[in-house]
């Protein structure tokens, strides 16, 4: 059976996975946030655009799902994906790749969400990224772990500031998980040529997005189970199969799954997830 190649251009989830290392201090959220700022910026759901660019960071210019509440959460989960790949890079001794994922590769994501963060009194990621950059430059693993813990805590702080606009909350989070998986599918599509990974950077982007989407799904799993356990079972089964496409940080010599197979599984997950936001 021939399956048409899909171009996923999606949206993010507010959940961030387990942080690493000791916590560092960050400024607390400012009191009395200006709720009207974000309220004026969030939109209504629209159908996903039919056309868009494939892979990596290009989904940020897709013109797709326009509800800012979903897009914000998607972008938080994708930031987490870049951070997870940075962690794996550090473990592999690949410090330059770690730096890229925490700076240039994620800069546009931070630029997209920080206006909404500021509107709710949450500070920029800039000082945390500076601390991460310094730790990587000096190959200070202890400093890196501490800064990464702060990074995750700050992402959680930003997500909580936006949560009050996401009603019902489960709907926005489940949609964001799906949209993050679409971003993973798009980046994976861009990473492969024939039966090999031709772009390791896109492969790692897609791997990070997949892993972060899984963390986000786990964060809302109890509520999903209460709402509809059978669909959750099918989503988890498809996700487990999907994960096999990314066996490790280092791309495999021959791909485990082609881009059409990845897109088909993501489409299956989306079909099962619709019940949570109807």
Can you put this structure into words, describing what you see?
There is one protein chain. With 278 residues, the protein is mostly helical. Helices cover 62% and strands 1% of the residues. It is built from 10 helices and 2 strands. It has helices at 35-41, 68-91, 95-102, 104-119, 126-137, 141-163, 169-191, 200-227, 229-243, 259-273; strands at residues 192-193, 196-197. A two-stranded antiparallel sheet has the order 1-2. Strand 1 and strand 2 (196-197) form a beta hairpin. Helix 2 runs antiparallel to helix 6, helix 7 (169-191) runs antiparallel to helix 10 and helix 8 (200-227) packs antiparallel against helix 9. The longest helix has 28 residues, at 200-227. The protein starts with 34 loop residues before the first helix and ends in a 5-residue tail after the last helix.
């Amino acid at each position: 059976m021939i399956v048409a190649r899909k171009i996923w251009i999606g949206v993010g989830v507010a959940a961030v996975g387990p942080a690493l290392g000791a916590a560092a201090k960050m400024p607390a959220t400012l009191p009395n946030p200006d709720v009207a700022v974000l309220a004026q910026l969030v939109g209504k759901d629209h159908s996903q655009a039919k056309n868009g660019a494939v892979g990596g960071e290009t989904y940020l210019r897709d013109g797709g799902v326009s509800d800012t509440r979903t897009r914000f959460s998607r972008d938080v989960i994708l930031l987490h994906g870049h951070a997870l790949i940075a962690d794996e890079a550090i473990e592999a001794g690949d410090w330059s790749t770690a730096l890229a994922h925490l700076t240039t590769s994620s800069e546009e994501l931070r630029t997209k969400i920080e206006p909404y963060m500021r509107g709710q009194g949450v500070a920029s990621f800039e000082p945390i990224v500076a601390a991460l950059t310094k730790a990587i430059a000096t190959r200070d693993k202890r400093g890196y772990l501490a800064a990464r813990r702060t990074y995750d805590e700050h992402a959680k702080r930003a997500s909580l500031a936006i949560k009050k606009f996401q009603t019902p909350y489960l709907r926005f989070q489940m949609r964001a998980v799906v949209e993050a998986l679409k971003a993973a599918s798009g980046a994976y599509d861009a990473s492969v040529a024939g039966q090999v990974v031709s772009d390791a950077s896109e492969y790692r982007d897609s791997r990070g997005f997949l892993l972060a989407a899984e963390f986000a799904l786990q964060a809302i799993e109890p509520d999903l189970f209460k709402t509809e356990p059978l669909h959750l079972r099918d989503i988890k089964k498809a996700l487990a199969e999907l994960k096999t496409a990314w066996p490790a940080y280092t791309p495999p010599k021959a791909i485990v799954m082609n881009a059409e197979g990845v897109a088909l599984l993501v489409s299956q997950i989306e079909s099962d997830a619709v019940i949570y936001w109807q």
